[in-house]
Amino acid sequence: MAKLDLDFVRAQFPAFEVPSLQGQAFFENAGGSYTCRQVIDRLHRFYTERKVQPYAPYEASTLGGAEMDEARARLSAILGVEGDELSFGPSTTQNTYVLAQAFAQWMQPGDAIIVTNQDHEANSGPWRRLADRGFEVREWKINPETGHLAPADLANLLDDKVRLVAFPHCSNVVGEINDVAAICAQVHQAGAVACVDGVSYAPHGLPDVGKLGADIYLFSAYKTYGPHQGIMVIRRDLGMQLPNQGHHFNGDSLFKRFTPAGPDHAQVAASAGMADYIDALYDHHIGGDAAPAAKGAAVHDLMQAHERELLQPLLDYASAKNSVRLIGPDKAASRAPTVALALQANAEEAAAQLAPHGIMAGGGDFYAGRALEAMGVDMDRGVLRLSFVHYTSRAEVDRLIDALDHVL
Fold it and tell me: Where does the record locate the signal sequence feature (predicted)?
């Protein structure tokens, strides 16, 4: 496998060039990544040259609509799904909320759904609220020591009443990468729908959703180097069964059925820059002709190889500290580089103490209070979360570890 050319990568992100961020190491990527140049350029072009109602028969409008269509077509191809199976919304939280309303109309009295306590609240809360509509909500619980979701525990919850299982590709605090393909197969065998929250996974390489077998896959563009949009894949057979949540006259259009509020045209168009960036990484490191999903898979592996090389020293450091509890696995191969640490001190205060060392990080519960409480974390202290992606350097991780030594 080619080794990631970090100089090339960082040249694609204007944030590394601005004076105000010089000497600052960004370790809060799980809350939102830097935006790549390709997205910024497209966004600027749309707002300056295409900011008209799209799809009308004059040039600025036609070009604007074509750029929106390009984003959907190219991203869906990378994700291994059909073009109309991908839709944009204001956020993943909003997309999940709309889906929950559709399922509430579609399900029958006595039906059940399964959620986990490993999730960020965005993929759990909207489904849990369906208990108020008379549906049974069952919880797939994590191991309180490790944070792991055991498939055997899911098997004990599945029966012919279950219509949907919502679970994360990986948690935004536990970090362990769940075996989505195996879980989806388990869910389908029970006759239920698999809804996967990919928000904390997708920044580390866009997955081939077609191969994973997820019926629904959600993630956030602003955490995958793009604009502030929620991206949702919903497979056609399911999407056309669920009640339309959009305007009645859009009921025949799959990518409009679950977006009752039209997304920002410019941000949709700019999302094609995410595909531009993946192509740029592929061309620079690998080259040659390949299908979009194959390019996406190659870039996915390139990103993760670099991240894991940097992650293991941080995990080793945290594991060796008696004053620190590492949340989730201690092996880089089984997790994302989203590292939550339970400290003896208040985590927000620790994050503030890291700032003078040039470390940008955060403390709190990160909307994953259910997982942290289940693992016995003192919620008054929260956790210090240190999250990075493929544009992070070894020198930045070394600086982080040095800073932690001073602060802890």
Answer: none
